[in-house]
Amino acid sequence: MKHWSAVAIALLLAAYTALWHAPQASGQADAGWVTLFDGKNLDNFNKIGDANWRIEDGSAVADKGNGFLVSKATYGDFQLRVEFWADEVVNSGVFIRSSDPAKVTGTNAYEVNIWDQRPEKDYATGAIVGVAKVNPMPIAGGKWNVFEITAEGPSFTVVLNGQKTVDNAQDAKIASGHISLQKGLGLKDDKGVASDKGVIKFRKVEIMPLAAGTTGTMSK
Q: How does pLDDT run along the chain (220 residues), one tens digit per residue?
């Protein structure tokens, strides 16, 4: 009897310990992450350009025009998680450290590309345009995807759906700036006119500022 009582007490103590630590571990896993977009509103962003951004079924969606959702805050060193759905033809991307919130370009920001049909495949989906090529290029069109982007000083790493597409690329021209989500122009027709066709959806955007950088500064 004493033996079974001791076993029962030990099992109860083990169960209690597991229950006690489970919520703590869950909370620690999300510690430090800040939600920029949760599918409910675009309060943390400003719109520039003429893209027709709106909220549909918990996602920020655009399928016409050319423009950006630009975060109101600026970030230096950070980890960024972005869930997105892109169709096969859309030209999109996640621009980081955008230094001019009124005019986002590939020269005043780093573009983590989302564009399966980009003519120059080296800088297509998964690459940082002009900084880090991708080979082989992953396909993002027609499904939900997750970008995990780390910017720490001059070092950049990009992971798409668990596949590392950029590994410790180096560039020091821009130290901090805004997070910008793009709905861009696609391939040009025979007359040289770029198409604005294609759907891009962003479902969840989270950022974790890192201690080494100036982060989370609100723009005026």
A: 445 455 444 444 444 344 333 333 333 346 799 999 999 999 999 999 999 999 999 999 999 999 999 999 999 999 999 999 999 999 999 999 999 999 999 999 999 999 999 999 999 999 999 999 999 999 999 999 999 999 999 999 999 999 999 999 999 999 999 999 999 998 887 778 887 889 999 999 999 999 754 445 555 4
Q: How many CB atoms lie within 10 A of CB 36?
A: 24
Whether the bond between 23 and the residue before it is cis, its omega within 30 degrees of 0, is no
- What does pTM read for this prediction? 0.83
Main-chain phi, psi angles of 17, to 5 degrees: -65, -40
Report CA 4 to chain centroid distance, whole Å.
Answer: 54
Task: Report the Cα 67 to chain-centroid distance in Å.
Answer: 17
Give the Cα-Cα-Cα angle 189, 190, 194 (nearest 5 degrees). Answer: 25
